[in-house]
Design brief:
Blueprint (H helix, E strand, L loop, with lengths): L3 E4 L2 E7 L5 H25 L4 H13 L2 H26 L7 H19 L4 H30 L3 H21 L33 H18 L1 H11 L1 H6 L4 H28 L10 H11 L4 H23 L5 H22 E7 L4 E3 L1
Antiparallel strand pairs: 1-2, 2-3, 3-4
Length: 367
């Protein structure tokens, strides 16, 4: 009998559940956040910090002013688009860890349009930047998808490694051929023309990328739950054997899903350079592509839930900046994000499996 030895001829085993209610599936992410907050608080207490003070500082940074709230929405935009990107891949059991690189490639392609073809009608230029960003992200997603579809090469490693290639390629451009000659030797591209800058809402930094993200969430929901192709994606994710028996083309769907996933992340990159930095520069992303993994799992891969979770994680980022300005370590945010992911994965296991204690004769002792 396989399992973890417990002593006195007893072992701990995991048994797959027959199913679980929708209520349990909704409560697990909430419970994960609560456990992460408690666990993070205990860690802070052990490190000599007052967890209540730190959490209050974070909350005041997000909800204490209109500026903090608007900045949270600004951070929500790339997290939403990248969260949707990885969620559609995860839905088919494709572990796309490359949203960060796909975001950068989308930003590079959009910057190329803005820098070299940016004069003209704003509607045309922004549309071209959007298409270029989506296409570049999709192509970057297809690079690991092809060996995965044809030769079953693990996409987790290849997507992760391509992140560094994309980031370094972007750095090469701003340190080299795209470096602004009027930029006082800083590694920045030239500022985009006005026609290549996304419109903003009022006096805030909230830009049209928010609309892109919300539309993408609605369309993704419709595609996944109300189209034949979306049904195929869900079936392949649940049971590749059943999908193959039903005649579904798994290799083709791998390519399509990874292209869609990369395209959404590429749009996030386009929105960042066009709406926020308005030029290509190093450190364009604050790890949005990696944080999106937590966003997708916490949202249970549901496009509408991902909207709310993106705002929550954006609040963590903005609250972290507020803590840093107060003299507290910004690494606390990373600790909380890691704790949330840890408890999400643990909760996900317990929703699919039950823990049983048995003796070596197979007689159940406890559950």
């Amino acid at each position: 009998m396989s399992g973890l030895p417990l002593g006195r001829n007893r072992v701990i085993t995991l048994e797959k559940r027959g199913g679980f209610s929708r209520g349990v599936a909704l409560l697990v992410p909430v419970f994960s956040i609560v456990c992460a907050v408690i666990g993070g608080g205990l860690f802070l207490l052990a490190a000599g910090y007052d967890p209540v003070e730190i959490y209050l500082t974070m909350l005041s940074g997000v909800f204490g002013s209109a500026y903090g709230l608007s900045e949270t929405v600004v951070k929500t935009i790339p997290l939403l688009l990248c969260g949707l990107a990885v969620s559609v891949a995860f839905r088919m059991q494709l572990w796309n860890i490359g949203a960060e690189g796909q975001l950068y490639m989308g930003a590079v392609a959009a910057s190329w349009v803005a820098l070299f073809h940016g004069e003209g009608s704003p509607v045309v230029v922004i549309a071209l930047m959007l298409l270029a960003g989506a296409a570049a992200g999709a192509l970057w997603g297809l690079i690991p998808a092809i060996p995965r579809a044809l030769f079953k090469v693990n996409e987790t490693i290849t997507t992760l490694m391509l992140n560094y290639v994309a980031i370094l390629f972007s750095d090469y451009l701003v340190y080299g051929p795209w470096k602004d000659p009027k930029g006082m030797n800083f590694p920045l591209s030239a500022v985009f023309p006005d026609s290549a800058i996304l419109p903003h809402f009022g006096d805030t930094r909230i830009h049209l990328g928010l609309v892109f993200g919300l539309i993408a969430a609605v369309l993704l929901y419709i595609v996944l739950w109300h189209t034949k192709w979306g049904y195929e994606v869900r079936v392949i994710g649940e049971s590749p054997v059943a999908a193959r028996y039903a005649g579904m083309n798994i290799a083709r769907n791998i390519l399509l899903v990874m292209a869609l996933s990369g395209g959404l992340a590429g749009i996030a990159g386009m929105a960042e350079v066009s709406g926020i930095t308005q030029r290509l520069q190093p450190n364009l992303s604050s790890g949005y592509g990696y944080t999106a993994i937590i966003v997708a799992w916490l949202g249970r891969l549901n496009p509408f839930a991902i909207i709310g979770v993106s705002f929550l994680m954006a609040g963590l980022l903005v609250g972290g900046y507020n803590m840093q300005m107060s003299g507290l370590p910004a690494a606390i945010v990373s600790i909380l994000q890691g704790a949330i992911l840890f408890f999400i994965l643990g909760g996900d296991i317990l929703t699919k499996y039950r823990i049983r204690i048995k003796n070596t004769r197979g007689i159940e002792v406890a559950e």
